[in-house]
Amino acid sequence: MKNVNLVFATLLLGGHLIAKESDFAEKVSVAAVKQIAEMQDNRITFEQDVAITQGTIKIKADKVVVSRSGEKGAEVMTAYGQPATFFQILDNGKPVNAHGNSIRYELKNRLVTITGNGQLKQEDSQVNGDLIRYDIVKQQMIAESKAPNQRVKTVFLPDQIENFDKPTDRKNQGK
After folding, report:
1. How would you classify residue 15: left for phi > 0, otherwise alpha for psi between -120 and 50, otherwise beta?
2. pTM across the whole model
3. CATH fit for domain 2-156, picks 3.40.50.720, 3.40.50.2300, 2.30.30.40, 2.60.450.10
């Protein structure tokens, strides 16, 4: 059953989530109530009502820790919240929403990892799991559950599978 869910998840999101490339050329902005900079550790912590934007990417959380391993552009942002949220508009114009207890965003690797009560949703289709990893470059999504008695849950509408790579018709969105 786990493999079947992985196949459905791949059909649902894996091959059709094409990130908006222009987002990655944009600056990353972070706003919060409090900021703590630890220069020797190459770490900045943002607390209380944290909002991160990069193009159409929006991350909201209670706390975000940004660390850099020394290489410029290799920042890793880990957002914590109840829940922490991730939003992006894809190249096809369709929004993707995700949330979990934590969201790790590796800027250089373009990797998003959602842990704890994770959910990745596009329109009425969604994937839920303890761990959801989305590799933006490879356009690959992996969802898994940690406990043997828990399952990855995938919900999708068959007509949406056929139309994932087509632009959203904004005139018909309200219907």
Report:
1. alpha
2. 0.73
3. 2.60.450.10
